[in-house]
Amino acid sequence: MFKGLFKKLRCVFGRNSSRRNDAKPPHFGSVVVSTKAPANDEIEERVLIQVKYQGKPYWCLFKCPCGCRRVISLSLQENHEPHWELKVTESGIPSLSPSVWQTVGCLSHFWIEEGFVRWCTNTGQKPWIAEPEYYSKPRKNL
Asked: What share of the chain is helix, strand, coil (3-state, %, to 5)?
């Protein structure tokens, strides 16, 4: 039960960025809701898209905040593993949990909290090397 909590605390308090500067605007200042997923080349920087089908959240899409321009697609469907939860404030600011950890490419590891990107100190490391107690190396398809 506490395994996930300890992981989040280690990530949040160990992040390598400074505390939020309230004078700086959030990276993701709003959520765009769509009924279908846009093509990757239609997704703009600093825009978080929530895809809903029949009123239910299905996907969350955005470009990686590290600047690599890779589109990140996360399932918001509870029957999928893994899946994420997107919370949106009354003013439209998103928070996403659990953290996002790219397993290929830039290997970014971060949280989105109230629109701000919170970087984890193990960003840039492969999850199965940085935290082998939680992650296994992916198997190659034969």
From this structure: 15, 30, 55
Q: List C-alpha distances in Å: 11 to 46, 80, 120.
A: 22, 24, 5
| Tens-level pLDDT at each residue, the chain (142 residues) | 444 544 554 454 444 444 445 578 999 999 999 999 999 999 999 999 999 999 999 999 999 999 999 999 999 999 999 999 999 999 999 999 999 999 999 999 999 999 999 999 999 999 999 999 988 888 876 5
Tokens of 141: 């398809």
Supply the range of the domain harboring residue 86.
7-130
82 is a domain residue? yes
Element (H, E) at 12: helix 3-13
In what side-by-side order are the strands of the sheet with 48-53?
31-34, 48-53, 56-63, 71-75
**In the block, residue with structure tokens 């308090």:** 13
Number of domains in the chain: 1
74 found inside a domain:
yes
In a domain, 141, yes or no: no
